[in-house]
Amino acid sequence: MSVAQLAVLDTGSNRTLAERLIDQLADRIGGLGVELADIAGNVQEVANRVSNQSERFHHLQTTAETMVSANHDIATASQAVQTTASAAVGEIAQSRS
To answer: I want to staple 15 with a disulfide (CB 3.0 to 4.6 A). Which of 19, 29, 45, 53 is the partner?
Structure first.
C-alpha cells in the first residue's frame, strides 16, 4: 500500500500516518526481537551439544590410548613368551639328542 493510499485511509482517524508507521515498525522490531531470542536459544542448545560431544570424544580418545598401550604390553609379553617357548623347544630337542 502506498503512502498516498495510507494517507487517504487515515483521514478519518485521529492517528497520523507517522504514528501508524511507527507502530508498524515497532511491531516488526518486536517480532524480530522474539526471533532473535529463539535463535539465541537454538545456538545455546547447539553449543551444549557440541560441548557434550567434545567431552565424549575426549573420553573415547583416552580409552583408545589406554587400549593402544595395553596392546603394546600384550605384544611385548607375547614376544617374550615366544622367545621363551623357542628356547624351551631348543632345550628339549638337545636333551633328546
So the answer is: 19
- Cell numbers that stand for 61 in this block: 580418545
> What single-letter amino acid sits at 26?
A
Per-residue pLDDT tens over the stretch 17-46: 889 999 999 999 999 999 999 999 999 999
What sign has the CA pseudo-torsion 24, 30, 34, 35?
A: positive
Residue 91, φ and ψ in degrees, nearest 5: -65, -40
d(CA 13, CA 2): 17
Q: Look at the alpha carbons of 80, 83, 88, 89 in this order and tell me if their dihedral is positive or negative.
A: positive
CA atoms within 13 A on the CB side of 22: 5
- Condensed to tens digits (0 to 9), the pLDDT of residues 49-83 reads 999 999 999 999 999 999 999 999 999 999 999 99
Residue 79 host element (H or E):
helix 17-96
